[in-house]
Recover the amino acids of this structure.
């Protein structure tokens, strides 16, 4: 199935929009769960693999986009779904549908500070648990100290 | 005074055992918090991030050309695959066509790299279950692949060889001759590994029926690569979504069949890697037999400035499905680059499939998943 057919298959649902410019389906966070259930359980779609979850900063570190890449090994088609989220609001967790989402959502939370509601254990995964801030946000400032150890910011230190 | 302990408050049978981050069997700096009851594992919590080098943050400050050495260091046992995966993503973003010779060279080095990487996987897996000799044999033969790469580009481990739009050095006739010699030699070696390890009764007892990963669990956790194929799922991007020129070659995708036990056990995952090396030999022979002429630098862009947009590309590395998501805003530096690391997803299934087994079996399962921490932590 191509993107148009996949969109038509889920088009009865609310809050979805086809973006042909970037070949993605835009989904509101309220209807993400319904789309995910449809993706997983509809025999024509049958997206058995959730390949990747990418959190993107829209530029001002207030608005974020979460990009989901799905793939179906039975039907050999793939699709990208994007959800927009404002800082402080949350996106429903897909970890109940695809277990892959568990660690990927933790990583998105760790690096970009996107909150996933309904996640069984939303805590940092790559960084230490007491790390402050979300490093991949565009407005991230490197702290002066970590546990009393100064963090070198003078570039001549390593250049 | 009643001094008997109320067992309902404290679980006195449970012990939390800490394994790693410095441990010979965790294949790097992986820490496992293992909850045990006696010697039986009831729960595992993997703790990762000890090798986090801010790969994605670095990429936001580097031009597209400068990122290649960093991708090398993600999966340091299969650097060629990482370079190739990243280069394919950038080429998709730029929409450029490559000379055929470049594609052939890339396939040859990628398959040699697959052999080298699987040799480490097999050797260390043997070590994990107590077989020491196979490791020395596999490392000896991997050395010959590294010698080939050294002759090709001067580096033995971190090659910086496959660049967006081409490769850094052309193949020499001498390299092709030496590769043929290596393949002839290596074919006989596979027979010896099978004699030494595959059919070894102790090895089979330790691995068959241990850590069975059913296909639906593997798919649900996003496990890819040889670990997924060990569970009997026919999923190999080289066949299902051929990139580069893999559609021109004739090769099989081995899947686990439960020869020694159940489908999806540790032995099956090991066996898939073993057979894959033979398939790689077939691919390399075909590619070297029909290597076209051409200039390997002709398609290389002078400067890389992709148009605004994003791309997600996938690649079958030695460990599984590498995904590269690049978001570009029209500058020579990516706005955001995310790497979907295969070992990251493969490790997440460990807790699911090794609960209920003994501690020594957890080591077996971990070894059969073939993780590389450099790529998990990025």
């Amino acid at each position: 199935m191509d993107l148009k057919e996949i969109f038509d298959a889920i088009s009865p649902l609310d809050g979805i929009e086809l973006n042909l410019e970037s070949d993605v389906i835009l989904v509101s966070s309220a209807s993400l769960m319904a789309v995910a259930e449809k993706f997983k359980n509809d025999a024509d779609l049958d997206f058995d693999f959730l390949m990747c979850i990418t959190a993107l900063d829209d530029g001002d570190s207030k608005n974020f986009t979460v990009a989901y890449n799905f793939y179906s090994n039975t039907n050999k088609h793939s699709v990208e779904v994007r959800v927009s989220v404002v800082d402080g609001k949350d996106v429903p967790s897909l970890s109940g549908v695809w277990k892959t989402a568990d660690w990927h959502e933790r990583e998105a939370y760790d690096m970009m500070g996107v909150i996933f509601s309904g996640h069984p254990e939303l805590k940092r995964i790559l960084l230490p648990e007491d790390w402050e801030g979300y490093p991949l946000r565009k407005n991230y400032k490197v702290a002066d100290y970590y546990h009393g150890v100064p963090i070198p910011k003078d570039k001549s230190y390593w250049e | 005074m009643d001094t008997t302990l109320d067992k309902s408050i404290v679980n006195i049978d449970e012990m939390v055992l800490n394994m790693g981050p410095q441990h010979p069997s965790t294949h790097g700096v992986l820490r496992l918090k293992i909850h045990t009851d006696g010697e039986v594992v009831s729960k595992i919590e993997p703790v990762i991030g000890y090798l986090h080098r801010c790969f994605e943050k670095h990429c936001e400050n580097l031009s597209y050309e400068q990122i290649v050495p960093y991708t090398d260091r993600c999966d340091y046992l299969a650097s060629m695959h990482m370079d190739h995966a990243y280069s394919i993503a950038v080429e998709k973003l730029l929409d450029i066509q490559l000379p055929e010779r470049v594609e052939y060279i890339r396939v040859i080095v990628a398959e040699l790299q697959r052999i080298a990487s699987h040799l480490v996987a097999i050797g260390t897996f043997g070590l994990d279950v107590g077989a020491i000799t196979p490791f020395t044999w596999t490392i000896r033969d991997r050395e010959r692949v590294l010698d080939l790469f050294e002759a090709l580009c001067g580096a033995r481990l971190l090659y910086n060889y496959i660049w967006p739009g081409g490769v850094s050095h052309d193949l020499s006739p001498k390299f092709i001759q030496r590769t043929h010699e290596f393949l002839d030699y290596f074919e006989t070696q596979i027979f010896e590994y099978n004699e030494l390890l595959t059919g070894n009764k102790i090895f089979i007892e330790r691995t068959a029926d241990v850590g069975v990963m059913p296909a639906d669990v593997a798919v649900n956790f996003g496990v890819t690569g040889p670990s997924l194929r060990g569970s009997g799922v026919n999923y190999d991007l080289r066949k299902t979504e051929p990139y580069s020129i893999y559609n021109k070659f004739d090769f099989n995708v081995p899947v686990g069949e439960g020869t020694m036990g159940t489908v999806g056990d540790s032995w099956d995952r090991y066996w898939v890697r073993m057979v894959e090396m033979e398939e790689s030999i077939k691919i390399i022979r075909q590619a070297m037999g029909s290597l076209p002429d051409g200039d390997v630098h002709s398609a290389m862009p002078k400067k890389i400035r992709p148009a605004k947009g994003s791309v997600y590309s996938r690649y079958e590395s030695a460990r599984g499905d590498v995904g590269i998501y690049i978001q570009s805003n029209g500058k020579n530096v990516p706005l955001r680059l995310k790497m979907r690391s295969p070992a990251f997803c493969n490790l997440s299934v460990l807790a699911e499939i090794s609960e209920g087994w003994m501690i020594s079996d957890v080591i077996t399962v971990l070894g059969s998943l073939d993780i590389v921490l450099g790529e998990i932590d990025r």
In short: The domain at 3-157 of chain A is CATH 3.30.460.80 (Beta Polymerase; domain 2).
